[in-house]
Structures are given as C-alpha cells and as structure tokens.
Amino acid sequence: MRYLALILGASFLGACVSPIPARDPDQAWVALHASAGTLLMADRLDGQRLNDGRYFQVTPGAHELQARFQFEVSSGGGLDGVYEPRQITCEIRVRYADFVAGQHYRLEARPLVMKAQAWLYDGQRNLLARGKVLRCGTF
Q: d(Cα 120, Cα 95) in Å, to the nearest integer?
C-alpha cells in the first residue's frame, strides 16, 4: 500500500514540473503573472475547463478567460491575540475580442484587501481589458 501511495505521489509531483508545451504560432499565448506569495492559475477558456492552469493558448478572435487567484490576508486576532492568515480565492473573468495569432499577452492579478484586481496586457504593455471579479471567498 505504501508503495502505491509513493508512486501516486511521485506521478502528481511530476505533473507539476512538466515543461510548458511549445507555443503554437497559429494561436495567441497568454502568460499569467502574480506577485510572490500569490497564485494565479488558468481555469476555463470559453466555459471549458483547462487541463493545464499555467497558461492560456487561444485561437484568434474573441475569448473569455477565467482564472483563479489565491492570496493570504491577515485576519484579526482572537482573544489570545493570535493572528491567523486566511487564504482567499477569487474567480476572475476577462473578456477580449481581438486575440491575434502569434502574439503574446499577459494576464496580471493582485490582491486588493479581500478582493482582487486583474488586467490583460499585450506584448507592449498596452492595457487591453480589465478582469471582473466573479466571487471571492475561502473556498
């Protein structure tokens, strides 16, 4: 039984460090960026769940990107004065109508108190779209 658990654990870790696939020149590439201590992962593309949350690769045209952004906030101290950080997860949606094949885009997110902010930029750091926070919570 231990041997099986070890094999399963190793296979899960191997999936986390697998290389990012080559960029398809016929599609647009959307890299994800968040500050240290936070996590931004691709979740859905046009309503379909993604297998790899490290990036979006989209065909030219209009698309809806949905990402999950996780960060910690300090919570108030209890009676004993202990401050426990809480992990907040926000679902963010970005809609953009003009993705271009071969172009590189960047989706950035940052915490804002108990919510989040997100922006989509092109390769020249021009702001293309703002993310809409769908919900945030401790889920």
A: 9
Q: What are phi and psi of 113, to 5 degrees?
A: 55, -110
Among 102, 28, 108, 26, smallest CA distance to 62 is for 28
Distance CA 116, CA 110 (A): 6
End-to-end alpha carbon distance in the chain: 31
Residue 102: half-sphere exposure toward Cβ, Cα within 13 Å: 1
Show the low-confidence residues of the chain (pLDDT under 70): 1-17, 76-82
The tokens describing 83, both together, are 């401050």
Per-residue pLDDT of 71-97, as tens digits, reads: 998 876 666 666 778 899 999 999 999
pTM of the model: 0.80
The residue extents of the domains of the chain are 21-137
CA dihedral 73, 96, 23, 48 (to 10 degrees): 70
Distance between CA 64 and CA 57 in Å, rounded? 12
